[in-house]
Amino acid sequence: MINRLLATTALALAVSLSSALAAETDVRIVLSEDLDLLEPCMATRSNIGRVILENVNETLTEYDTQGGGGLRPRLAERWEQQPDGSWRFHLRQGVTFSDGSTFDARDVKHSFDRAMNSAMTCETPRYFGGMTVTATVVDDHTIDFAADPVQPILPLLMSLVTIVPEETPVEFVRDPVGTGPYAVTEWTPGQQIVLTRRDGYWGEQPAVTSATYLFRTDPAVRAAMVQTGEADIAPSIAQTDATNPATDFSYLNSETVYLRVDHSVPPFNDVRVRRALNMAIDRAAFIGTLLPEGTEQAVAMFPPTTQGANPDVKPWAFDLEGAKALLEEARADGVPVDAEFTLIARTENFPGVTEVMEATLQMLQDAGFNAKLQMFEVADHERFYSKPYPADRGPYVLAAMHDNNKGDPVFSMFFKYDSEGRQSGVSDPGVNQMIAEASAATGDERARKWSDLVAHLHDEVVADVLLWHMVGFSRVSERLDWRPSIATNSQLQLAQIGFR
Amino acid sequence: MFGFIRQRAIASLISLLGLVVLVFFLSRLTGDPAALFLPIDATDEMRRQFREIHGLNDPLAVQFWHYLGDLARLDFGDSLRRARPAIEIVLEAFAWTFQLAVITMAIVTAAAIAVGALAAFRVGGLFDRIASVTSLVGASAPDFWIAILGIVLFSVTLGWLPTSGTGTPLHWILPIGVLFIRPFGLIVQVVRGSMITALSSAYVKTARAKGVRSGPIIFVHALRNAMLPVITVIGDQAAALLNGAVVVETIFGFPGIGKLMIDSILQRDFNVMLAAIMVTALAIFLMNLLIDLAYALLDPRIRH
User: Fold this and answer.
1) Predicted model pTM
2) This protein's superkingdom (chain B) (predicted)?
3) Which listed site, B39, B104, B181, B196, has its alpha carbon 20 to 30 Å from B58?
């Protein structure tokens, strides 16, 4: 214990000294939750990705959500699909890892195989579900990925695989080594992580020399830290704290709030009832009141910056009388519209969720629905969210929030709308077919097919009750030239930060 | 004395074992850690593998048997979330909480005893009234409100102190200040009440009649006899701090054991949860032992 106390005291002095000596090009970023891991194969988890993704561990490709540039080269200079459907990636030369070793195709193969290894519980396999992918080294700077079935978006999927050296063990590491412009130079769990700019990076040298990540749970404290100069960026603060137009910014955060409806359970198996649900909710009334200005009404499960977004699909107009008429019509046909159902929502899902759900419930009741509200914490909510759905629960409509900032609807559509989708309420062979066709398509045809599916689900199937694309708030020091974007939810590239 | 300590140690060991059994099985009722650790769209196979790797597919009795075996070797297992030995994580956090608790309680004890004793000396006087009102307000003020108010006033408005963190001695002032208020209010009230009783006793009247000055009467004669209930309350408050000051740790970003315990419960990180409870239970046992020894030191009747 005495040793620990001495070590803690020494650390405090070191931190104090380092604060005093901080350069003007050092930045401090205050995050809402402490990191439990710094494992590269977990970098698609937003709290980890914000620190290491593309800062420490890079990917072969990179999806430009911020600039709208689509899929861009990163560690792969180019790629092409082979006649057999596999993808060949030509790797960047002259790249080194932060441990001094040289980057080559064997590192890529090891990174992929390691991330997919069942001995580890990485995030990566979730994106490669339903397919078998084999990596084959062609030469030092060329690697083939063969997928069964053939994957048209394999280059996009490679933007989710972080590259580590071949020597990295098949277990979670605490000192990630990567090819990125920064290296982890200090990690004091619960307190701070320091990334330092490294020499020998293959790309342009970033302006930020070092970044210290701090962790504070309370949003008011995070906002205050930027205000007092203790931090430069607080990527997530509360709406109520975002009061200074010079430093506080709102941004679409890639989260979509919706009500999932199980089409197999009466009365929701009747499309008129699903239409009535949509028409009963005055989405616009929430914006600027219970939800921040900038929140957008949703017509799809993914944000409008994603390929396949359909600008022709319009949000359901609030029409209380229309909803009542539809319910009356269904009732006359014997649909049990008076059956009680539960609106299930998750506590802490987003700021003000309880008030939003209570107002939603009131609107549904006004339209004639016999609904009640139940709020659950995350683990209990999960029992209703994913299949197998509880059979003894009676009819329910589930409020949930879904995040897709990966640039392609495929990361949402199968899970949410296919008959086999883990969180799907839909069982429609036509929809399954459209998802399969869009997933297999490429280029403009892919975008068009997703776009058609969005319209079909929204206007004809009336698959669910899409509500809002949410916004987040950031506070950024006036000395920085940086603005949050839809990517900020999952990554924060230090190389994109400039100084005024 | 050694017999007394041995007796207390055996009783505490039995309590600790009971605690392990209780927490082990109750924690398993909270649900499957795979549901929280893995992404929501993880496949059933990923979930099964996760449970297999962490021994969660075994029957509960088998898991408990393995856990007891590991515990006998002082192996608390690894954290599910952090992939590190649970006891390392817990001891790191406990070191912070321990420092915070010791410093806070030292200041609280000294200040509360002085203020309470002086207030009792002139009951109904100006000092007594001020001390009573401020201590009552302090004892009933909510931590989170005081903490936020402190940040707004001393950090944002005046710029005197950092908002949060642990880097320099200045970082400790606000957390200690917030933690100080409630136990200070409580202990002042107890010291005052206990001292009023002591000061009205026959031996104090005799001392006054013999011309002994106020200082020695208060701090030598009366205070020693008034300390027994005060020590009980100090022990109670210190135990609460050793369990972790969750609100203060959360707001000020102090990586202490209270926040760690809450996080481990919410994340179903069973090994960390059990290790944290064991460490704090052990600390509280040691502290209770110290309090018992302090009783014996102050009151010869207990010694004999």
Assistant:
1) 0.81
2) Bacteria
3) B39
